[in-house]
Design a protein that fits this description.
Elements lengths: L18 H56 L18 H23 L8 H7 L2 H13 L6 H37 L6 H29 L6 H22 L8 H19 L19 H22 L22 H19 L17 H47 L1
GO cellular component, one term: membrane
Membrane topology: Multi-pass membrane protein
Subcellular location: Membrane
Amino acid sequence: MGEHGGMDEPNMVEIKLSDTEAAQWEELPELSMQKSVQCSIEKKKSLRARYYYGIVFLITNLIAWLFRDYGEKALPLLHYTKACGKEEGDCFHTMGVLRVSLGCFIFFFVMFLTTFNTRKFYETRNAWHSGWWGLKFLILMISLVIPFFIPSYYIQIYGELARVGAGVFLILQLISVIEFITWWNNYWMPDDRNKSSCSLGLFMSTLFYIVSVCGLVVMYMLYASKPSCALNIFFITWTVILLVVMMVISLHSKVNRGLLSSGIMASYIVFLCWTAIRSEPASENCSPQKQENAHGGVTTVIGFLIAIFAIVIATFSTGIDSQSFQFRKGEVQLEDDIPYKYGFFHVVFSLGAMYFAMLFISWNLESSTRKWSIDVGWASTWVKIVNEWFAATIYLWKLISPVVRQDKIMNHEVSMEEVNKSEAA
């Protein structure tokens, strides 16, 4: 307070800027706007590049299929290259698929090495990932040609490694699917106290369980109607047991996760069981395949093309889903951060090339596959069945892991209290 009871006037400090500093101060908003516009342009390029890589992946796998089914007639001169041998068509059928797959793997692995740990738009590796398509096309052509000059023995070794890589790809895909189911569950039931959201969740979970039960009944009728179809009966019955276990654990008082996520997962498990049974050889009595379609009818061709596009889409979605595999989640996304992890994206496509190769040769390195078929044979059947069981195991662990961790924390606190009491006594 001053002498007359008024408020003291605040001291005003006048800061004088030079002409240069004043100009720079006025340019700051413009620089910020330019940076924002540049980041927006780079982000669009990066997002667009994903589809270009997806197209490259699709085309290379179609080339692998063409080599398997029609390469021996279309390119007979490859018989006389040193790596293929003069009297046997090692460059075609199984070996042809593996050679093209190796070329695709090399291309995407080179992209992984050159884009790994890219974080910001202003980095040179971001420009390389999103541009330079002429040079990358040249690298792709070189990558596809080199495997045809590699001896068959080393291609066989790559085939063995491709089995492992394809298995890793399936695990990554399963984790991505389960994370998506979790997100879907949270999206449909955002608030447990909201009656409308609970009603929607109950309706959708009921719908998914009805679809699952209908699918099981249809599989019993079509693929397990005879007592001699013991293996199919076992596959379907075990799927029923897995569904019941998932439902019971989801409703357990300690877990209390509801039926929505388990209902979605149940439909996915039934779908995996159906694809496994569909992969059984056509010679089997309980197989849904028909021997008269061995040369491929219209339905076979359409199913083949749908399967290829579905696998490409699954590979694409797994590649851009790097957040499901981060140890530290919830990180703040800055304006100049890349929209997805380039290294992880290219690794998934590298493993996807191995997975596609296994589908085209039905996971069997010793025999050829009939035309217009994909992933048919006992090896394919068992891979899909194990994939189904593994998916159920991962989901069940995701349900019970919070309870297990909580029990460990409580047991640790109780033991610490007992130690403190004993020391005090």
